[in-house]
Amino acid sequence: MLISKTSKPFTNLKGQLRWCIVTSFTAAGLIALGATVIPLQAHAEAPDVSVRNWYSDTGISVPELKPSWTAQVDNYLNMNEPYIGHQAIAEHGKVFTFAATKLISMDAKTGKRLWSYGKGLTPYIVYHNDVIYGLNGDHKPYALNAKTGKAIWQSGSSTWIDTRYRTEMLVPTSDTLYVIKGSTTFAFDMKTGKLKWKADEPLGEGNGTAYLEESNGVVLRTFFVQGALTSIQLNAYDKKTGKKLWDDFGQGEALQIKDGLVYSVDYHSSLLTDYQSAPERKVNVNVYNLKTGVQKGSLEYNWKMKGDPPYDYGYGSVFAGNGKLYIEQGDQIAEYNFDKYTANADPLRTYQRPFYKENGQSLGIVQERLVYRNETTGEVAGIKLANGQEVKWYGDAPVAQISVYGKGIYRAQRNGTLLGINMLTATPVFRVNTGGDLHEATLKTDGMIIIQSEGKLLGVKLPASLK
């Protein structure tokens, strides 16, 4: 993910947002990565939003679609938590997942098995440029030709670390495969699988986030470090050697990297404020030289909390997109011009924050809508950027998992059905009987959605209105 709740000081959005959440802002990458940033390569046709919930009976009447095929696969519920959300991907008309601990490839339209690889593999894979990357049972990375299933390389270096370090990510970039394990980062040569370097942040004591970003020869990561105060810390490493270039306590992941500068929220200074008695609030976005860590400036955003003390903390998520900066300020979301900063400027616009009393979690911007999740129920709602109107996409049973691709919302429900909803009109379009209670992320490729139920996949042809 990785994400702390919005009532806590460390809420931030970029990176791989867990609860099986993936948000997409622009083609430049997640949450306003700068033009020089190499975006993280995630699942093939990456969902704009994907939310899994662990646990309105309106009886929505829509056409029921029958699956084109069903396949038995390894049950994700039996997998360790770090692997959930990474055990299946869909790309270029193919589905890749695990059956009997083997990696298999299937045709997305027919469910026909195309090839299989290995045995006893770690159920975690990513796709990048027609190559599948994964970990064998000894946690040694491997690379396969996605079309044939033939091995390109098998690394001789293991990334195994004590399983209590729950954060685990494979992050392929242009020429490097990074493996994140807690506070340790491994960098493998993309062509050969040779380990180039390994770096650990000792102050993190294994507590690293899933954030990794590469830009102009520098790798950025964040960690939760212990001290007189516990806070997030931003580290920068040399891409070639893994040498730490700089770090800064209290700084979050980059909101933006632009013109050799890193823009990052300062969470440390806000911890020193007596926020319960004073209504004044501020967010500082500090600006650092990407390669040296020298601070070049700071952008300050100020406001006052409403009402009387004691006051809430006052802000949750701070994220950027499309040249704008969004700051949650109590029950509102304030939008500022991020590209053209003006000191003491008022917000360009403010929006009512969905699910504020239910501790709603921001998922980002999709289809010109600010999307939020109710952490209690798992429901999602949006705010139209154009006019501030709230939009809801409710179904007819408690939600198990929600994925969004473009204008399609795929809502897997606890009554064993999945609803397809048009995101722009909020109109339900179809229903599928999945036969399952819990669901993992719905995948999408080549006009098909792949529903992940308990121990099986269902391939469903999409109606034209949602392709």
How would you describe this protein?
With 467 residues, the chain is an all-beta fold. The chain has one domain (37-466): 7 Propeller (Methylamine Dehydrogenase, Chain H), CATH 2.130.10. It contains one helix and 38 strands. It has one helix spanning 268-271, and strands at residues 37-38, 49-52, 69-72, 89-91, 94-99, 102-107, 113-117, 122-128, 131-135, 141-145, 151-154, 168-172, 176-181, 184-189, 195-200, 208-215, 218-225, 231-238, 244-249, 251-258, 261-266, 280-289, 295-304, 315-321, 324-329, 332-337, 349-352, 361-366, 369-373, 380-384, 390-392, 399-405, 408-413, 417-422, 427-433, 440-445, 448-453, 456-461. The chain has a five-stranded antiparallel sheet with strand order 1-16-17-18-19, with no helix packed on it. A five-stranded antiparallel sheet has the order 2-32-33-34-35, with no helix packed on it. Strand 13 and strand 14 (184-189) form a beta hairpin. The longest helix is centred in the middle third of the chain and has 4 residues, at 268-271. The protein is globular, with a radius of gyration of 22 Å. It starts with 36 loop residues before the first strand and ends in a 6-residue tail after the last strand. The model is unreliable at 1-43 (pLDDT under 50).
Structural class: mainly beta
Shape: globular
CATH fold field value: Methylamine Dehydrogenase, Chain H
The number of distinct helices, counting runs of at least 4 residues, comes to 1
For the biggest sheet, the summary is:
5 strands, antiparallel
The CATH homologous superfamily is called YVTN repeat-like/Quinoprotein amine dehydrogenase
**Can you give the helix content as a percent range?**
under 10%
User: What CATH first level would be assigned?
Assistant: Mainly Beta
Q: Strand order of the main beta sheet, please?
A: 1-16-17-18-19
Quaternary structure classification: single chain
Count of separate structural domains: 1
Low-confidence stretches: 1-43
Tally of extended strands?
38
Instruction: Tell me the β content.
Output: over 45%
Distance between the termini: 27 Å
CATH architecture: 7 Propeller
- Average residue pLDDT: 87
- Evaluate the radius of gyration: 22 Å
